[in-house]
Specification:
Layout (H helix, E strand, L loop, with lengths): L8 H8 L3 E5 L6 H8 L6 E8 L5 E7 L3 E2 L1 H8 L7 E2 L2 H6 L17 E5 L7 E5 L5 E6 H6 L5 E3 L2 E2 L7
Parallel strand pairs: 2-7, 3-6, 6-9
Antiparallel strand pairs: 1-8, 2-3, 2-5, 4-10, 7-8
């Protein structure tokens, strides 16, 4: 890849004037590992899953750390078929200023579609990905959402293991 690397989520948030703290920790990739590294409960995290559409459009889904993504609900929220959701690979994340294990709903890819679960805004102070697996962002959930003004909000998370996807 030629040219400068895209900026990461902390730089995007700083450029927007958002108030946040960056926490360094060992490289971890799962929400449970992040919680252990930071000493925070899973309920105070926002995990972001990254997908691409067949047209290589980036789709970011942000849900509470203790919830699971309802893939069908996400697809309906953005008006695509469930089968058109493919996990975003390393190369695609790199173009958005992120690495696997550090995905954030705020990215350098201004064309990305972002969907927040409807419960995220009420979580208060949360930790989320920073763009890389060795650090996390601590931010008010409402401010995180405000940093992506084009984001949609929908019921895309399930908390119960028996809730249909």
């Amino acid at each position: 890849m030629n040219g400068p690397a895209p900026i990461g989520p902390p730089e995007v948030l700083a450029a927007l004037g958002a108030s946040f703290r960056l926490h360094e920790h060992p490289d971890v990739t799962s929400p449970v590992e992040v919680c252990a590294a930071l000493g925070v409960p899973l309920e105070r995290t926002v995990k972001t899953l990254a997908f691409v559409t067949p047209e290589d459009h980036l789709l970011l889904a942000a849900v509470p750390g203790h919830a699971r993504l309802r893939y069908g609900a996400l697809a309906r929220a953005v008006g695509i078929r469930r089968g058109d959701l493919s996990p975003a690979g390393t190369e695609r994340l790199t173009r958005a200023g992120m690495q696997p294990g550090g995905v954030c709903p705020v990215s350098a890819d201004r064309a990305a579609t972002v969907v927040f679960d409807e419960t995220v805004g009420s979580l208060g102070l949360v930790h989320c990905g920073s763009g890389r697996p060795g650090s996390s962002i601590e931010i008010e959930a409402a401010e995180l959402m405000a940093a992506v003004p084009t984001a949609a909000t929908a019921r895309i998370a399930g908390l119960s293991a028996d809730e249909p996807a």
